[in-house]
Amino acid sequence: MSVSIIIAQEEHYKFAQEICDTMEASALLRGTGIAKRSPDYIQKKMQNHDAIIALENGKFAGFCYIESWQHGKFVANSGLIVHPDYRHLGLAKQIKKKVFEYSQEKYPGAKIFGITTGLAVMKINSDLGYKPVPFSELTADTTFWAGCKGCTNYDILEKKEFKMCLCTGMLYDPNNKKPEEIKFNKKVLTRLKEIKQTFLKK
């Protein structure tokens, strides 16, 4: 597999619809919520050089984009997706590492965060130095949470006054010089996810 992972630009606009379709299909397959994004939104990220794309011989293989909040104080790496033909090859981890490093370069000093229901993404984040945190430690920018309106679980988030949802919040703080070591425990996080699903959907 000779996949190139690069900063997305205008020449990659042609992949925007495929990226959106792949995101939606993946969410339906997993039975999880996802904040839907339009091709125009994806193209805007490419135009601003706020996205990473993986390609093999001109074929779309994976994608992830950057969002910044509170004047660059907080940065989110969002929309991580790998085309079905390239899954289970470690590509998601490579893309996540690339966008993580690029985020630090483009937004020095920013706290990098994400919210996810996926255990695989939690594992990748944990390996990069993220730690699970309550939503109160994430950005207070209302436009970030408004971006969750396309998610099937938005009613839960709204009902809980944006303090919790089925997603787990994770944060990397570059100012924490000696971050505590977080050991990823799939069984514990799976059980936590089941508890959330039981109680938050009531």
UniProtKB/TrEMBL annotation:
Q: Which InterPro entries match?
A: Acyl_CoA_acyltransferase, GNAT_dom
| N-acetyltransferase domain: residues covered | 11-151
The alphabetized UniProt keywords are: Transferase
Recall the GO molecular function terms of this protein's record. acyltransferase activity, transferring groups other than amino-acyl groups
Q: Report the Pfam families cross-referenced here.
A: Acetyltransf_1
Keyword Cell division (UniProt): no
* Endoplasmic reticulum as UniProt keyword: no
Q: What is this protein called?
A: GNAT family N-acetyltransferase
According to its UniProt entry, this protein's organism is Flavobacterium macacae
